[in-house]
Specification:
single chain; alpha/beta; Rossmann fold; OB fold (Dihydrolipoamide Acetyltransferase, E2P); five-stranded parallel beta sheet; 15 strands
Length: 245
């Protein structure tokens, strides 16, 4: 059974998708969301196998939602009226990209791709010819109490792994996130973010000082005075990344 979550801010679009899905006996709709934040929250609660995701929604976009999904990550099929986000969508390992109004045939084709994925949640069926360098996401969905809030990139200092959980450290507060550091690293622009150690991923624009330490390792000082250790094998690469930033 393909447990499916529908996320679209327009009720008629959600109703149409539900009607089309009803023709597939192996598909079960387990929830609907009207905003990107609701979609992220429901995805964490019901853990769907498939997320049918609109792109332009209140609060945050479907691209942001897909970039911030935690494990277990559902297969994502974008359903949108806009074709200009296709490459960004596939950079986030989308299974398919459907243009509205979604046709019965195209939805069936997308479901076949989900079925054939055989549980592989990282494969992106995009031809290499249309790939481009990652542009990265510019805002992040984080947990704040019982809700999710959107944090803009300009407020991000670094991400850290603490006790198996991911924390976004911002200019004012700290927030928990669903994606792991490895997942974030895959989705972020390497020209703007750098993995300094197994436990930290920094925003290069937030670095104020870099200090070499004995043995070849180092330390970075971030805005706000945060000090983070840089792994020895990554110190020279960090200096190069800062020089190119």
């Amino acid at each position: 059974m393909i447990r499916t979550l529908i996320a679209d801010d327009e009720a008629p679009a959600r109703a149409r998708l539900r009607q089309l899905l009803a023709a597939h006996a192996d598909v079960e709709v387990v929830g609907e969301a009207e905003t990107g934040i609701q979609a992220t929250q429901l995805a964490g609660e019901v853990k769907p196998d498939l997320l049918l995701l609109d792109i332009q929604m209140p609060g945050c976009s479907g691209i942001d939602v897909a970039a911030c999904l935690g494990a277990p990550r559902p297969h994502v099929v974008f359903c949108t009226a806009f074709d200009q986000y296709a490459v960004d969508a596939f950079e986030l390992a989308a299974v398919d990209y459907l243009l509205k109004p979604v046709s019965r045939a195209r939805l069936a084709q997308a479901l076949d791709r989900v079925r054939s994925a055989n549980g592989n949640r990282t494969e992106a069926p995009l031809d290499e010819a249309v790939r481009k360098p990652r542009t990265g996401v510019r805002q992040f969905l984080v947990r704040h109490g019982d809700a999710y809030v959107v944090i803009g990139e300009s407020r991000v200092l670094f991400f850290s792994s603490e006790g198996g959980l991911t924390r976004l450290v911002g200019d004012a507060e700290r927030y928990w996130m669903d994606p792991t550091l490895n997942e974030l690293q895959e989705r972020l622009d390497p020209a703007r973010y750098f993995r300094i150690s197994r436990a930290a991923l920094i925003n290069l624009s937030a670095v104020t000082q870099v200090h070499p330490l004995p043995g070849g390792s180092g330390e970075v000082v971030m805005k706000g005075g945060h000090k983070l250790e840089v792994a020895r094998r990554r110190f020279r690469d960090l200096l190069q990344a800062l020089g190119e930033a």
